[in-house]
Amino acid sequence: MKLNFAPWVAALHLVLFILVSHARSEEEPFRPEPGQFPPIEKAHTYRGELVFVDHANRRGSIRVQSEGMYYRIEPHPFAMLPFGMIRHRGAPADLRDIPLGTVLHVHAFLPPDPTTSPVPVMPISNKDKGYGYRGNGIFPAENHVLLLEDEISHCRRQGKVWVLKQLHIENHAGTIIARRVPAGNNDAKAEEETMTFDAATRIWRGRESLDVADLIAEDIWPAEGHKTLTGQTVQLGIMWKPTPKGVFTRFHISDIWLDDTAIQRATRSQNETHKAFVRSRWMPGWVDAVEYGTFGQAIVTVTLFGGMDDALYANFTKGISAMMNSVENTLKHAGGNYGPAHMASRGTILEVTKADGKIPLGSSGIRIQFQTDLIIEGIRPSRVIRICPGNWPQVNLPREEFIGDGNNPASRFPTPEIFPKY
Amino acid sequence: MKLNFARVVATLHLIVFILPSHVRSEEKPFRPEPGKFPPIEKAHAYRGELTFVDHANRRGSIRIDGNGRFRFTRPSPFALLPYGIVKYHGAPSDLRDIPLGTVMHVKAFLPPDPKTSSVPVLPSDNRLKRDGYAGTGVAPAENHVYLLEDEPSHCKRLGLVWKIQEVELKDNAGIIVAHRMSKSGNGDAHKETFSIDAATRFWRGREQLHISDLTDKNVLTENGIESLKDGVVFLGITWKPTPGGVFKRFHLRDIWLDKLAMERATHLQNETHKKFIMGRWMPGWVDKVEYGKFGQAKITVSLFGGMDDSLYADFKQGQKAMLAASENTLKHWAGGTAGTAQVASQGIVLDVSKPNKTVPLGSSGIQITLKTDLVTEGFRTGKVIRIRPESWPLLEVPREEYINHKRDGIEKRFPTPDIFPKY
Predict the structure, then answer these.
(1) Are residues B413 and B301 in the same domain?
(2) Does B423 touch chain A (CB under 8 A)?
(3) Which of A23, A279, A371, B178 is least enclosed, having the fewest CB within 10 Å?
(4) Do A207 and B201 count as a contact with CB atoms less than 8 A apart?
(5) Which residues pair with B384 in a beta bridge?
(6) Which CATH number fits the domain A283-417, given the four candidates 3.40.50.150, 1.10.10.1450, 2.40.30.170, 3.20.20.60?
(7) pLDDT tens sequence across A300-321
């Protein structure tokens, strides 16, 4: 009898394929754990338009980009992780700073604790699911965000720029074809993207704020027709507006930064806004360890969350007075009717250390040891806190940004009911 | 018996005071009626900080200035009337254009129909109530907004300007004291102290300056920052928590140092809104329907006001147009594969007229008569519509901005106030 090897080899391949697939599908999906900053490599990434914001609870909705018909896609709720970072114009930001319509890049995880998620909990496999005309992966279960950044922040983090290739203009509006490439390597291979612009597009040059009409008046752009843009490198602010002629997805350019000075000025403005914000709301972090003493004394070790301006971290120095307050995962202060200082534990900073090596996104790598006479229930390992050095101004917060006496669980753990179902 | 005249006069005064007060309290509170633009003089006016926006349903929340401790004030929900106008940087806008934190001037009414209000319905005398430290009138029942405008829009509408009196700077932050007055310098001047910081933007011509630029003598000639004093400016006002136990102090996000700078800001916002209206169609309501045979009808509509003139000019006699039923939130209906256009009625504009009379806010004064072969249930007198001239691009609006004719339930047509937190 002569053996026919071909069917045997095919069958073996099939068995191997099934075994490997089965093993992969049984892999435990990754979820962030309390007290640990998750590795960004494990995050699911997507991008989309910011459609709704509930800044007081650090959550909102994004219309997630797919290969499908963009306008048909329902907004997808997301929540910021307590250590989740927001970047706008290359600087740290709060959700309230980002204009609705801005296209954002997202790195997100499954809910660390689905039972207290402030946004709907989706099936784990949802990122692979198709939704007809709308496309695939538009409602990922990974809706707890580690990093939310606008286009310019995304490009600056990755060392990228946009190279403009071609312009078509008619009545102060039109399209631009551009590629996102590594800075200094204009010839790098990158997919071309066609985006719209219009008479409301802002063009930043040095400290000037220009519009399309100004560029036409200066003969930089033609009034009508096509122009080849000879590889000019810029940064772009990207948003979405409905597109005519049946185009599935085409983003819109809200801002063009023509030079480094213009970019730096935009970054500085946002950075100053955020510095004032953090000084008034206090620096967030979480508790690494508590060494209990006697009569309510304790030494508390905390790690400060990352992504803020260095000047803020520099305000935490050994020997100064400080206040620490327990906060929720939304970063809302507890018991703030008389201001966060009323409920906070007072004490002294004993030590400030900065970790060596690679620091995970979400962490500053800065640890603080704080000694207090009033250790409270909210200051436990892995719990989120806010800390304020003695030299920051003391302000009282608006009503929606703190939790009253804590009797209402909905204010501590907002439910997803706010989000409409389509 | 000797009359004590002092007592008699005092009693008479009391009676005279009580009678009109009683009559006033029994006066029926004013409520807008369907099909009528309400007189702005009857609106309740207040101002406050925009703290929340649900732009798809044209509603949000405002922290109202009750002349108390501002930070104690809970955000008060509001809904825009279908013909309610939003103005930002002196130009028409949508709620999505206004950054959170912006201080807005509000003219508002009681809910026209409390049963379908998309925000909480409050006792009609609530504006007289004191809410502890927050002050008085911080949650008025007049939460259906006719006009929502930021400071430059408010000043431009009323012919007002701000004049800077004092500037105090320390470490790239400080205080500005300014007077708001009429351009002519007459009238009551309103004095206010504001904070500024390193994020405050100063606009001069087409330049955007930072506070650090102002202390550079190469940027501001002669006396540097001192040269701002007595300057006539427009202010963009916001709120940030204030240190030092100050009950209420607003913050300056923007200062327009000259007319050109303000005009450029107005132009940009106007262009944004023009594109927005072309994509979503011009809102209005139905004044009259003359029914013909087999679904034919002549429909007369009034276009809502406050838009750029060039948008109204696009409606021309003899031109094709599309008319779509809309909700009070100005949401379209959509279905099938062609979205909003699929459920719209097509027709010809028979007439465009502008009556020669005073036009109330909310109305453009422009009436359009459209002849269609497909009159639908949504086109009834007093109902809200959207209309598109043929020259505007046909765009698909995003999912949250339309009501799907099959999938969406009653709550999408009449959103409930459940979205707003209770403090």
Answers:
(1) yes
(2) yes
(3) A23
(4) no
(5) B285
(6) 2.40.30.170
(7) 999 999 999 999 999 999 999 9
Identify the residue whose tokens are 């106030």.
Answer: B417
Sort A50 into a burial class: Cβ within 10 Å, 0-12 / 13-18 / 19+. Answer: buried
Residue B422: inside a domain, yes or no?
no
Please check whether residue B109 lies inside any domain of the structure: yes
Helix, strand, coil abundance in chain A, percent, nearest 5: 25, 40, 40
The answer on pLDDT for A2 being more than 60 is: no
In terms of residue numbers, what domain contains B119? 40-154
* B360 and B299 inside one domain: yes
Check pLDDT > 60 for residue B15.
no
B190-196/B91-92 β-pairing: unpaired
**Count of the separate structural domains present in chain B:** 3
- Note whether A332 contacts B: Cβ–Cβ < 8 A: no
What pLDDT, on a 0 to 100 scale, did the predictor assign at position A29? 86
Query: Min CA distance, B302 vs chain A (Å)?
Result: 26
- Taking the Cβ of residue B348 and every Cβ of chain A, the question of whether any pair is shorter than 8 Å is answered with no
How many other C-beta atoms lie within 10 A of the C-beta of residue A299?
Answer: 17
Q: Where are the alpha helices (DSSP H) in A75-195?
A: 151-158
A415 vs B: CB within 8 A: no
Residue B58 is encoded by which pair of tokens? 């044209």
Which residue on chain B is closest to A74 by alpha carbon? Answer: B399
B16 is a domain residue: no
Of A207, A393, A400, the CB nearest to B208: A207
pLDDT at B313: 97
Q: Measured between alpha carbons, how far is B76 from B408 in angstroms, rounded to an integer?
A: 28
Here the tokens at position A294 are: 């006697």
- Domain with residue B355: its CATH number is 2.40.30
Say what the pTM is: 0.92
Same-domain status, B333 and B319: yes
Number of Cα atoms under 13 Å in the Cβ half of residue B61:
22
For residues B136 and B129, is the Cβ–Cβ distance under 8 A? yes
Q: Which of A100, A241, A272 sits opposite B55 (nearest CB)?
A: A100
**b/e code B293-305 from CB counts within 10 Å (16+ = b):** eeeebbbbbbbbb
Q: What is the CATH number of the domain that holds B48?
A: 2.40.50.320
Residue B3 has pLDDT above 60, yes or no: no
Same domain, B398 and B298: yes
Q: Tell me if the domain spanning A40-150 has CATH number 3.10.20.310.
A: no
Instruction: Judge whether B6 lies within some domain.
Output: no
Same domain for B352 and B313, yes or no, is yes
Give me the residue from B271, B399, B418 closest to A72, CB to CB: B399
Question: Does residue B287 share a domain with residue B413?
Answer: yes
Same domain as B370, residue B330:
yes
For residue A241, the distance in angstroms to the closest alpha carbon of chain B comes to: 9
Band (pLDDT 50/70/90 cuts) for residue B18 is very low
* Per-residue pLDDT, B25: 44
CA–CA dist A23, A42 (Å, integer) = 18
Polymer length of chain A: 422
